[in-house]
Amino acid sequence: MRASAAQLEDVRVSARGLHWESLDEDISVEGLLRGLGDQSKHHEGAAA
């Protein structure tokens, strides 16, 4: 949520999904197609 534009633009696209190395974040193709949101535990300070 607090990533800079430069961090968001630094994405790697693969057959499995999207990966942001500097953010340590992944979104799978399956998750995108199923409309799944954040599957990690609630982070302090994140929007509810």
Topology order in helix (H) and strand (E) letters: HEEEH
By DSSP, the count of extended strands is 3
Helix content: 10-25%
From the N-terminal CA to the C-terminal CA, the straight-line distance is 12 Å
Q: Strand fraction band?
A: 15-25%
Describe what this molecule looks like in 3D.
With 48 residues, this protein is an alpha+beta fold. It has a domain at 5-34. 23% of the residues lie in helices and 21% in strands. It is built from two helices and three strands; from the N terminus they run H-E-E-E-H. It has helices at 5-9, 29-34, and strands at 12-13, 17-20, 25-28. A three-stranded antiparallel β-sheet has the order 1-2-3. The longest helix is centred in the middle third of the chain and has 6 residues, at 29-34. The radius of gyration is 12 Å and the shape is globular.
SSE arrangement:
Layout: H1 5-9, E1 12-13, E2 17-20, E3 25-28, H2 29-34
Characteristic terms for this protein:
48 residues, alpha+beta, 3-stranded antiparallel β-sheet, 2 helices, 23% helix
Please sum up the structure shown.
This protein has 48 residues and is of the alpha+beta class. Helices cover 23% and strands 21% of the residues.
